[in-house]
Design a protein that fits this description.
The protein is an alpha/beta fold and about 575 residues long. The protein has helices at about 5-25, 55-60, 65-75, 100-115, 145-160, 180-195, 210-225, 235-260, 270-275, 275-285, 300-310, 320-325, 340-355, 370-380, 415-425, 425-435, 445-450, 455-475, 480-485, 495-505, 510-515, 520-540, 550-570; strands at about 40, 50, 85-90, 95-100, 130, 165-175, 265-270, 290-295, 295-300, 330, 360-365, 390-395, 395-400, 405, 440-445. It contains 23 helices and 15 strands. It has a five-stranded parallel sheet, with helices on both faces. Strands 1-2-4-3 form a four-stranded antiparallel sheet. Strands 8-9-10 form a three-stranded antiparallel sheet. The mean pLDDT is about 95.
Length: about 575
């Protein structure tokens, strides 16, 4: 399932490779394998529909100046049935290809033929992939980092699906360990305060301070009264956690559902402990020599692993790296496993027990130091750490009236996901959070997100789709039905604006694959914006309802193809494609 655009690029690459071989057979070039080169759309399409850097990257190997090598190759090109109008050597040795009009027509025709399926490919070949994202602690509401991680993770999962992978979306519920102990302690203090006062039970600084804790304690007291005041502390904590935690998890699922995120699996950390999987993976590390006992605790030998990986890479650790390295506790002296031990067991479960071929985690940038040691731990337990990929996501800063905006109207504390969705359309939130690469910091302009103008990028894209739908309704009233558009002579679309738009439409499958391959969903929003801009340019310069019926049909067909591409692109982002605005 290769797109016409990608097929052309591959064929051009094959033509170039064949020219290298022909020149070598003639004794004009060394009989060496050419270095990898790329065939891509140039930044300025005045320089061709495709450009190749084959001569430039092979000049040294072939012992020839790039321009001379490029000329030598072009003289031996055999395009066969490829619709290449001409090729030229330009600049320092680029080879530029200009395609015939029939090729542009074929791109538009492919979109019309495939419809809702256009953009899908078999690039992933059915690889079984898990994308784990958000995984917010269930001890409180979700913050802006979770909001951004949700949009990025969900769009990345969609791009992987569209490019032929078998994808599972997963939320890891951290319902065990220190944060749950802290949650229970916080609830217990707030509960006791209701009956015995804050002076007798001051809230420790290391407890959760949120109003949600107070609300849970009040609701629990309304159900049980003072029944749990006199019971042992642990019993009271357990009862409060058993009451509040399911409500928090249900709220996470509800709020994420409102955000259009549906998970295939909600995996609980507590299951790993209950089923003995954390203890089992610790024993596995100990048996294989990657864990050792010291001071009553069990330690993972991270220093040994990182040193070994550096040696395998052909370099010793630097002094700075050595100074930062330390071994990690797996089981504390009191017998309680650490979060790191549970994380190793969780990822062992992903790979070894559930058979995922690749695992992608979307994490906040503050987890940077955890990446190498977790990947190393996968190697230590007999798996391949290279199959675990971590997408590190930078912080987002909310802006309003040109100033940072931090306070929630509801609680007076940090803005939560629900606060955001109360003030900003879901379409805008999902689009905006995917406008920058995950590793780039991002300012979310609250004022811009609600604007109904071309300055608002999601409105700009949606307006393009609505404008096309309006045009198609007008031409349909004059007899140009979708069936009639399928028969339009697309070779008539020869204006620069028409060719430019058709070329961009043909690139959707490539953009989706690139978003999946490089873990960069921002490519999808950028592509949607570019398509909208090219359509608006076409609309201004090429009148659809013109005097020539054949040209009118062809332009209407191009409009329909553009609407299809915009709708499919927005579907990946889970953003609506309105027909009227």
């Amino acid at each position: 399932m290769i797109s016409r655009f990608d097929e052309t690029r591959r064929q051009l690459a094959a033509v170039i490779s064949a020219a290298f071989a022909a020149a070598a057979a003639e004794g004009l070039l060394p009989a060496a394998e050419p270095a990898p080169f790329v065939v891509e759309v140039p930044g300025d399409t005045a320089n061709g529909d495709f450009a190749a850097n084959a001569a430039m990257v092979n000049a040294r190997t072939m012992r020839m100046a790039p321009q001379r090598l490029a000329a030598l190759l072009t003289e031996r090109f055999d395009f066969g049935s490829l619709p290449v109008e001409r090729c030229e050597v330009a600049g320092p040795g680029f080879i530029n290809f200009y395609m015939e009009q029939t090729w542009f027509a074929s791109l538009t025709g492919e979109v019309l033929q495939k419809g809702e399926a256009f953009g899908r490919s078999d690039y992933g070949r059915g690889e079984k992939v898990m994308v784990e994202f958000v995984s917010a602690n269930p001890t409180g509401p979700m913050h802006m980092g979770n909001a951004r991680g949700g949009a990025i993770g969900d769009c990345l999962a969609a791009a992987l699906e569209w490019s032929g992978h078998r994808v599972t979306r997963e939320f890891y519920v951290n319902d065990a360990g220190n944060q749950i102990n802290k949650f229970g302690a916080s609830l217990s203090v707030r509960y006791l305060q209701l009956f015995e006062g804050e002076e007798r039970h001051p809230l420790p600084e290391d407890c959760y301070q949120g109003l949600d804790i107070i609300d849970h304690a009040k609701a629990f007291a309304a159900l049980h009264g003072d029944r749990y005041v006199a019971v042992p502390e642990q019993e009271r904590r357990d009862a409060l956690v058993a009451y509040a935690l399911p409500k928090n998890i249900a709220a996470l699922e509800r709020d994420l559902g409102r955000y259009r995120i549906r998970y295939d699996v909600w995996f609980r950390e507590s299951e790993l402990h209950r089923e003995g999987k954390v203890a089992a993976v610790c024993q596995k590390l100990k048996d294989s020599g990657w864990a050792y006992e010291k001071d009553g605790a069990l330690w993972y030998n991270n220093i040994k692993m990182m040193t070994q990986k550096a040696e395998q890479a052909g370099r010793p650790l630097t002094e700075a790296e050595t100074a930062e390295l330390k071994d990690d506790v797996l089981v504390r002296a009191n017998g309680v496993p650490t979060y790191f031990a549970a994380d190793i067991a969780y990822h062992y479960n992903k790979f070894a027990e559930r058979g995922f071929q690749r695992v992608i985690n979307v994490w906040g940038a503050d987890h940077h130091g955890h990446v190498a040691r977790l990947k190393g731990a996968m190697d230590a337990i007999g798996l391949d750490g290279d199959k675990l990929d971590i997408v590190l996501m930078q912080l987002v800063r909310l802006m309003k009236d040109g100033q940072p905006y931090r306070m929630s109207k509801r609680s007076g504390r940090a803005v939560t996901l629900t606060d955001l969705l109360d003030d900003v359309p879901i379409d805008a939130a999902r689009f905006f959070f995917n406008m920058r690469e995950p590793n780039a910091t991002f300012d979310f302009d609250l004022d811009l997100a609600v604007q109904q103008s071309s300055e608002n990028p999601v409105y700009y894209v949606q307006y393009a789709h609505a404008r096309i739908c309006s045009v198609l309704k007008l031409v349909a009233a004059e007899g140009l039905t979708p069936e009639a558009l399928q028969k339009a002579d697309l070779t008539l679309l020869a204006a620069p604006e028409e060719r430019e738009l058709a070329r961009k439409l043909g690139q959707l499958p490539d953009e989706i694959v690139a978003a999946a391959r490089f873990y960069d969903p921002a490519r999808i929003t950028r592509y949607a914006t570019e398509v909208a801009a090219l359509y608006h340019k076409f609309y201004q310069n090429c009148r659809v309802k013109c005097e020539d019926p054949a040209l009118c049909a062809a332009r209407a067909a191009l409009c329909r193809a553009t609407a299809t591409v915009l709708k499919n692109t927005l579907a990946i982002l889970k953003i609506t494609a309105p027909e009227v605005m």
